Amino acid sequence: MKRQNENQNDYSIRIELNQTIDAPVQEVFPLACPVMEYKWIPDWKCELIHCPNGHAELGVIFREIFSAPILADSIAQKTTWTAAMKKGGKAKINLMLSILALMLKHYCEKGEMIKTYEIMKLASQVEELTTKDRIRSLLNKFMRMVIQDEDRKKFERDIPIMKVKST
Question: Where in the sequence is the domain holding 139, given as residue range(s)?
């Protein structure tokens, strides 16, 4: 890890993950958006804070708990894709990116959401995940089931989703 700012506990980690997806680029990139992730991430829920046009663009802000068990050592901590990780940060970020890449590849190539057990197979092979991490992941799945998500309901009814943060 590389220390980003000596006065804060912020860390900068660079991860590069290459994944080949057998689908046209113009179909894949729009899916990397908190709204479109409803299509391909099982149990995806998020809190849009700033999303003026309903798709990925500069300045979009959202919170989610999907990454909490892996990146934040929590079952329900909301993150904005920055998280304080206690240990194994690089491996855990690489796992999250691998899981997201697997889900996106499956959706783009097969036209359907991946089954949860396939994701669990990938996660079970990662040595850096502790027993606590695995328990938090199970509890996180429960949390995602009980959290209400009005934006998901709009998405499922094909209603445009746009939010602009208040200043």
Answer: 22-156
pTM: 0.56
The Cα 133–Cα 96 span in angstroms is 13
Q: Mapped to the 3 state alphabet, what secondary structure does the chain carry?
A: CEECCCCCCCEECCCCCCCCCCCCHHHHHHHCCCCHHHCCCCCCCEEEEEECCCCCCCCCEEEECCCHHHHCCCCCCCECCCCCCCCCHHHHHHHHHHHHHHHHHHHHHHCCCCCHHHHHHHHHCCCCCCHHHHHHHHHHHHHHHHCCCHHHHHHHCCCCCCECCCC
Amino acid in position 107: Y
Number of domains making up the chain: 1
Can you give the pLDDT at residue 166?
65
